[in-house]
Amino acid sequence: MSIDQFYLLDEEIILMTGEYDHFGRFCARVMIGGQTILVSRSPLQLIDDTLNYIGFDLKGANKGTKNILGNINMWPIIVNPYKGICLFPYKSPRQEDCVWFNPDHIVKTKSRGFKTEVELSNGVSIIIDLKKYTFITKIQTALQLKNISRERGTHPHPLSHFITSEKQIKPIAKRKEGKYDFKSLMEYNG
Hints:
By secondary structure, this protein is α+β, with helices and mostly antiparallel strands. It has 4 helices and 12 strands, in the order ββββααββββββαββα.
């Protein structure tokens, strides 16, 4: 199935890779459930389109991941923080045969020498050119990013415990000279 119109990634995505269509355009082959679709955007463009739709972009998502996880290679991306969609590449996204995985749809991994067989939630398996140990580390890193992002999203800052109920709110008074009197807060908070 080929899709030329606007398409967004959702939580049903199992994996995505690059593929050339019959016109020679580099597209994204997206696996959803037991079927695949060909979207006339590259995998990175498709990730960026999805991020742009909700008010983010790929550059910011990369920067955020680097901020959370540190300086790592081929980091995972939170594609949609509201739906908890995280994807990670098993190799450099600049390589055309890179496969992006959704860690939520990986059921089991098996070592196949220097390769790894990845069993997916739809009953399909794919063999990739990466040792099992390295691939499992990538899964764990993606899940760590997803969990930290979710935690930070629901508890955005350690100072949030200072937010009080309306009954305890004390207004900051403005002095005659036009400056605000923040000392009144210190007196109020004890």
